[in-house]
Write a structure and sequence with these properties.
Elements lengths: L1 E5 L2 E5 L4 H5 L10 E5 L3 H13 L3 E5 L2 H10 L4 E5 L7 H11 L4 E6 L11 E4 L4 H11 L3
Parallel strand pairs: 3-4, 3-5, 5-6, 6-7
Antiparallel strand pairs: 1-2
Helix pairs in contact: 3-4
């Protein structure tokens, strides 16, 4: 509503964006639900950003205990798990997730040597790039 006051008169006008009224409502279906378990705030938010830009729904947590609570509420399609976590470590989380939600693809990430990684659908040695994350997403959760 716009009001204009001038020389003793008051006018009112309603501005409507006609084009917006004609657009159909669209719902974007997320590509995948991804659980990111990373204790580093910067790394966690970077991975979240990459995945959200790839149309994923992301649940990002900083420890294994929060990850378990999250995946028990809603099973992810993919979990990206750092191995070096405070409290329960990533190896134990991978074991528990595999037992509790075997349909979830697991990607492990760490600064450790690859030989130290537990079995998983994919690995992301740190440091990794956006392209590597998108490649792992494509391999583990094809469209």
């Amino acid at each position: 509503m716009c009001e204009s006051r001038g020389a003793g008169s008051t006018r009112s006008a309603t501005v409507v964006n006609a084009a917006a009224e004609r657009l159909p409502e669209t719902t974007v279906t997320p590509r995948a639900r991804v659980l990111v378990v990373e204790d580093s705030d910067d790394q966690r938010e970077l991975v979240r950003t990459y995945l959200e830009r790839a149309s994923c729904t992301v649940i990002a947590v900083q420890n294994a205990e929060d990850a378990i609570a999250a995946y028990l509420l809603q099973t992810p399609d993919l979990a990206i798990i750092d191995l070096l976590l405070p409290g329960m470590n990533g190896w134990e989380l991978v074991r528990r997730l595999r037992a509790d939600r075997p349909e979830c693809a697991i990607v492990v990430t760490s600064v450790l040597d690859r030989i130290d990684f537990p079995p998983a659908e994919a690995i992301l040695p740190k440091p990794f790039t956006r392209a590597q994350i998108l490649q792992v997403l494509e391999e583990c959760v094809p469209e």
